[in-house]
Specification:
alpha+beta; Bactericidal permeability-increasing protein, domain 1; three-stranded antiparallel β-sheet; 4 helices
Length: 187
């Protein structure tokens, strides 16, 4: 009987802590960020290397890993379809990209942005287009950085939940934990 009472008390205490957490912070997990990116990612860009080539790039299938491979950072992986026009004629390639960024909360917009975006790794198919992609990489990196500086990775929806409304009104920053972004509320 004593063990049952202790178990019930422990469950009640855990419930209270979880309830308090909702009043002190708003937590977003990787799946919520991934869902938002799938619905709102619109990266599509025409990139030119003057006198060499033009490339149309469409970024798809973005997935985040929060604070796992590098503390305080978000790593995105995704695919890109690339249509290239050059002196060699039209070609197309598929890329697998890995990007790294610093998540930042913009209280005024109620949004999380991925700043200082950097293309850290990629592979290209067919491999014969590796040299062409090497020439495009600096332009692609600059374009991705500009895009994610302006386009949020997540926007709080105060109509969705009370804790999202509290986060938008009372947020005092952003903490990166393994697998989650935490928006603590101000006092």
């Amino acid at each position: 009987m004593k063990k049952i009472l202790l178990g019930v008390a422990a469950l009640m205490f855990a419930g209270l802590l979880a309830g308090c957490n909702q009043l002190t912070q708003y937590t977003l997990n990787e799946q919520e960020i991934n869902d938002y990116l799938q619905k709102h990612n619109e990266y599509q860009k025409q990139i030119s290397v003057p006198g060499l080539l033009d490339a149309h790039i469409l970024l798809t299938q973005l997935h985040s890993q929060i604070g796992r491979s590098e503390p305080g950072k978000v790593t995105l992986s995704g695919d890109a379809k690339v249509s290239i026009t050059s002196i060699l004629g039209p070609q197309s390639a598929d890329l697998k990209l890995t990007l790294k960024a610093q998540p930042v909360y913009d209280r005024e917009k109620g949004a999380i942005f991925l700043k200082e975006m950097e293309l850290t790794d990629y592979s290209v198919q067919p491999e014969k287009l590796q040299t062409v992609m090497n020439a495009l990489t600096p332009y692609l990196n600059q374009s991705l950085r500009a895009y994610f500086d302006q386009k949020p990775a997540y926007v709080l929806n105060p109509d969705k939940s009370k804790s999202a409304a509290l986060a938008k009104a009372l947020a005092k920053g952003l903490e990166v934990k393994p697998g989650a972004l935490v928006i603590p509320f101000s006092d």
